Amino acid sequence: MAKDKRRRPKAETPKGFRDYFGPEVTERASMLARIAEIYHAYGFEALETSAVETVEALGKFLPDVDRPNEGVFAWEEDSDWLALRYDLTAPLARVYAQHRNDLPSPYRRYQMGTVWRNEKPGPGRFRQFYQCDADTVGAPSVAADAEICAMAADVLEAIGIARGDYLLRINNRKVLNGVMEAAGVLDPSDPERFAAERGIVLRAIDKLDRLGEQGVRALLGEGRKDESGDFTRGAGLADEQAEIVLAFTEARRDTAAATLSRLSELVATSETGRAGVEELETIGTLLGAQGYDDSRVLIDPSVVRGLGYYTGPVYEAELTFEIMDEKGRPRSFGSVAGGGRYDDLVKRFTGQEVPATGISLGVDRLLAALAAKRGAATAAAGPVVVTVMDRARMGDYLAMATELRNAGIRAEVYLGNPKNFGNQLKYADKRASPIAIIQGEDEEARGVVQLKDLILGARIAESASLEEWKDQPAQKEVARGDLVAEVRAMLASRS
Question: Is 89 labelled as part of a ligand binding site?
Answer without folding.
Answer: yes
